[in-house]
Amino acid sequence: MVAWFWKRDKDAKERPRKVVIAEGLWIKCDSCKEIVYRAEVERAGRVCPKCRYPFRISARERLALLIDEGSLEERDAGLVSQDPLGFKDTKRYRDRLKSAKEKTGLEEAVISGLARIGAFPVVVCVFEFEFMGGSMASVVGEKIARAIELAGVKRVPLIILSASGGARMQEGILSLMQMAKTAAALQRLGEERLPYISILTDPTTGGVTASVAMLGDVILAEPRALIGFAGPRVISETIRQPLPEGFQRSEFLLEHGQLDLVVERRDLKETLRRLLAFFADRPPLPVP
Amino acid sequence: MPEALEFEKPLLELENRIAELRASSDPLAARDEIASLEERLRRLQQRTYASLTPWQRTQLARHPKRPHTLDLFRLLLEDFVELHGDRLYGDDKAIVGGLGRFEGQSVVAIGHQKGRDTRENLARNFGMPHPEGYRKALRLMKLAEKFAKPVFTFIDTPGAYPGLGAEERGQAEAIARNLREMAGLRTPVVAVVTGEGGSGGALAIGVADRVLMLEYAIYSVISPEGCAAILWGDAAKAPEAAELLRLTAPDLQGLGVIDGIVPEPVGGAHRNWEETAAALRQALRDHLWELKGKTSDQLVQDRYEKFRKIGVFEETT
């Protein structure tokens, strides 16, 4: 379970043993580097108690935090990637897929299905960044397009939680075309007057930002998430200067009018409940 | 980029010798030699252009003397009027667009615009648009829809510009919105990759009823240099990356991403603009006339299905 937890442990072993860290009891924040009490982080939904940075979490963990317990009815879990280009660099694409599957326990970089949030039925898609950087494979595009169509058929709101480095190079132009495919499906959903809430998490860049992520009727983001079209390294190499502090973070996008709201992880479910109540035009049910 | 590509040099040498002999004091005496050189030239051309590598095609697609969007507008359209600006922020010179007449039909034409020398390239930002470029393109497409005119888009960009201002003003949003709005545009759209189809920055004006490519154009999710830098930490390995990416027109046709290939003259579009434009005119006319027979509902439906089915995967249970 819990990749970040073991990763922190490994980090701890690599550091000079000046700070003695009890196995699993304490962890170091990715952002402020403070050593914090693990149970406290867990209680806050994997958020640093010192600086409020939301740790990167897996798609499964995200679902557990957001949807009503046991409400997920997963769809299209049997869609698996092939190797349409026969892509082989230092490693074969098929081998990369295999290790991503072993690492995450998932077949691909997105989980989709029907679920309930505050008792409101929704279609939900969650990207798994640990699966090849949440990149847009044919399967990812297909699962999202099907999920969008499912929202249309069931006449329920769509929620997509993005975390992606963008296109999947190993699928070449087919990856790029998934942007057009998913955007076209969202166009239809809009024609049907069904709401789409997009939630951007750390990091959301490249082709996913330039398609599904920025097309929400409402766009939310977690604090300090990296969000952009081009990656910061590419930009700083292009303009040949260092980037300003906070560039391409959620707060920067909010400041520039690109987002509706930055929402802390602990408030996300309540915010969704209110939004879903608005679109359903009825009051949210009381929290059980 | 040098005036002549490496693989073009033997051909240009032959051409120069033929020209010299023709211009000599006694061209009649050299008649036999000219004929034999011309025969050699023809065979060498055939051999060279029948077996171009993906990297050589990439070089042709980027050739500075290749006809660019405004050149093609001039050769294909009558009574063209360029329209500027996105009505929001500015006028991006990396994307041009306007109104014109094509074969007796009013059309809105839009395309990326590269420069031919340093000064032009600085003005055009090397054909790399900012959000305002994509917003201008969309504004013109909506104008076309309003007045029921078809749209042509010419794609020729290394990609959307990765810069501070571009990010501040919503590069991703501008591209995403174009993808969505083009998918629902209730008028015929024909897109042609005329040179370099650079990723999302290209696709942002490429969601069309018909997507065509000039014979030596390329269309890719990432530049060969970018791909090589990621894979091997070395942009100089771009020729190898070009092989991996399957970015040539025949590759894309095989993958079901494009609907047709427009032939280029021997040696590539930069060797003969008129011939290039004539072939393109023919292709545009054929596709446009087919699309004009469809209702707007049918157009949008067919366009949806066209993009909806792109992708390769396996369905297990």
The count of helical stretches of chain A stands at 9
Main beta-sheet strand count, sense and barrel state of chain A: 8 strands, mixed
- Please tell me how large the radius of gyration of chain B is: 21 Å
**Whole-number count of domains of chain A:** 2
Instruction: Summarize model confidence as the mean pLDDT of chain A.
Output: 91
Residues in helices of chain A, as a percent range: 25-40%
Number of strands of chain B: 9
Counting structural domains of chain B, the number is 2
Largest interface: A-B, 63 and 55 residues
Portion in strands of chain B: 15-25%
Classified by CATH, the class of the largest domain in chain B is Alpha Beta
CATH topology of the largest domain in chain B, anyone? 2-enoyl-CoA Hydratase, Chain A, domain 1
| Helix and strand sequence of chain B | HHHHEEEHHEHHEHEEHHHEHHE
Output the structural class of chain A: alpha/beta
Q: Look at the structure and name the CATH superfamily of the largest domain in chain A.
A: 2-enoyl-CoA Hydratase, Chain A, domain 1
Describe the fold and architecture.
The complex is a heterodimer of chains A (288) and B (317). With 288 residues, chain A is an alpha/beta fold. Chain A folds into two domains: 1-55, no CATH class; 57-280, 2-enoyl-CoA Hydratase, Chain A, domain 1 (Alpha-Beta Complex). Chain A is 36% helix and 18% strand. Chain A has nine helices and eleven strands. In chain A, the strands form two sheets. In chain A, strands 3, 5, 6, 7, 8, 9, 10 and 11 form an eight-stranded mixed β-sheet that branches. Chain A has a two-stranded antiparallel ribbon with strand order 1-2. In chain A, helix 5 packs parallel to helix 6 (172-191). Chain A starts with a helix and ends in an 8-residue tail after the last helix. Mean pLDDT of chain A is 91; it is low at 1-21. Chain B is an alpha/beta fold. Chain B has two domains: 6-51; 58-309, 2-enoyl-CoA Hydratase, Chain A, domain 1, CATH 3.90.226. Chain B has helices at residues 9-23, 31-50, 54-61, 69-76, 118-124, 131-146, 164-168, 171-183, 199-203, 224-232, 238-245, 249-254, 273-291, 296-308, and strands at 78-82, 95-102, 105-112, 151-157, 189-198, 210-214, 218-220, 260-262, 313-315. In chain B, strands 1, 2, 3, 4, 5, 6, 7 and 8 form an eight-stranded mixed β-sheet that branches. In chain B, helix 3 (54-61) crosses helix 11 (238-245). The mean pLDDT of chain B is 96. Classes of the chains: A alpha/beta (288), B alpha/beta (317). Chains A and B meet through strand 4, helix 5, helix 6, strand 10 and helix 7 of A and helix 7, helix 8, helix 9, helix 10 and helix 14 of B. Strand 4 of chain A pairs antiparallel with strand 9 of chain B.
